[in-house]
Each structure stands twice: as C-alpha cells, then as structure tokens.
Design goal:
The chain has helices spanning about 15-25, 45-55, 80-85, 110-130, and strands at about 1-5, 30-35, 75-80, 95-100. The protein is α/β, with parallel strands linked by helices. The chain is globular.
Length: about 140
C-alpha cells in the first residue's frame, strides 16, 4: 500500500506527516511526501527539531516534487487548501483525504515553536486515527 502526503512546499507539514507515518504505519505501507512547489531551502529546521524531540529523525528528508514520485498511490492526503487547488485530479486508488492544517512555517518569533508543536501533535493524532481503521488495522 502506498501513502502520499502533499503540501505546497513540502517543507513542514508534509515532512512531519511523512516522519510520523513511517513510524506509525503498519508493515508494508510505503510512505512518501511531496510538494506542488517544493521549497528550495529544504525541510524547516523547527520541523526537524520538534520531530527529533519525539524520537523521529527527519533530518535526511528533502522537499520533493510530485513529478519526482512515479506510480500510483492508494491514499493521497493533502495538508493544505493550496495543494488541493493545485492538484485537484491527483488520483488515489482507495481514498483522497484533506487535512487542512495551518502552516507552522509561516509563524515567526515566539509563535514559531508552539505552531510546530501543534502541527506535530495534530498530525500524530490524525495518523493514529487513520491507522486504527481498515485497511490499516489488523
């Protein structure tokens, strides 16, 4: 089974989701993420930091384009309205889900860390719920 997370820049939310899904998904699930316009500066450092705090290392991840990911996906999960708007026909064999979350990378100063922590916790919660249901649950 193949699972794809899509965001506009593939810099924060989708990278956090990919990291969590790789940790939480049952065996046999291939997890990838991509952006409609991959960010040239790489994965946001605060995304790497907050995931590291929970024992998930995404430091080797890099923003990828949808064009970099051949093949079909069973589940496509968009994490922002922009991704939905920019790729409305991106197919999913089983389901296409929309988890529109605020972009923590837009936060600055004192709001940056809390925004990334909120994204991390929300994405973990959504994935635990998804993986508790068929066809993921055993």
């Amino acid at each position: 089974m193949r699972l794809l997370f899509v965001c506009s820049g593939n810099r924060a939310r989708s990278q956090i989701a990919e990291g969590w899904a790789r940790r939480l998904a049952p065996p046999g699930v291939e997890v990838l993420s991509a952006g409609t316009r991959p960010h040239p500066q790489g994965v946001h450092p605060m995304a790497i930091e907050v995931m590291r705090e929970r024992g998930v290392d995404i430091s080797a991840h890099r923003p990828k384009s949808l064009a970099d990911l051949p093949g079909e996906f069973d589940y496509v999960i968009t994490l922002c309205a922009e991704a939905d708007a920019e790729c409305p026909t991106l197919p999913a064999r089983r389901a296409r889900l929309a988890w529109h979350l605020p972009d923590p990378a837009l936060s600055t100063g004192e709001q940056e860390r809390p925004a990334f922590l909120e994204a991390r916790e929300r994405i973990e919660s959504l994935l635990r719920e998804l993986f508790s249901k068929p066809p993921f649950s055993t």
